[in-house]
Please model this.
Amino acid sequence: MLKSLKSINLFFFILSAAILLTIALAWALYPMEIHWLGIQSRTGFSASVIMKNFNVLMNYLTNPFQWVLKMPQFPSSKNGLHHFEAVKYLFHLVTVVFVVTLPGFIQFMRTVVKKGYLALYRSLFFWMMVLPVVIAVVAVMIGFDQFFTLFHQVLFAGDNTWLFDPRVDSIILALPEDYFMHAFLIFFVLYEGMCASFYLFSRRKK
Model:
């Protein structure tokens, strides 16, 4: 029972940590994405203007004390604001999960990793590595655009406000699908890297 609780806590800690790191890196790398993805030509704005509005959006999504979204050059529709609010709640949920599971992770490092019992969790790390690979294979098979649609349909079941109309929510022009694909790749590398590190370390423990 105790092992199961530790396993669940560990899974959610690694998952939430990888998501939060992905958010931070996707934000930090956005200036390069502006040039890589030709976002200036897509929106008709300069890189500095796009970045200013993107920072406003990301501050709204990540700051628990900011509850009004008003991007200067990118007005939002009621549906657009509703979707961003839903994303904001998800971001905050991930943060809460990270904070709640952090003490358990620290305890895991002290009582399991340092004492040489990590091998007991080897199968857990193996399956934690396999699951995202299976999902990635499915994404490749059906195409990222179809996977991205399916992802939103599952995450926002019964809510189609994520289907932005660029005529009323022009911010979507600054957030092309390739940008999200890069974010998914960042998450995949981070999550797999964490799980693989624990798995390989567990194999060295005798």
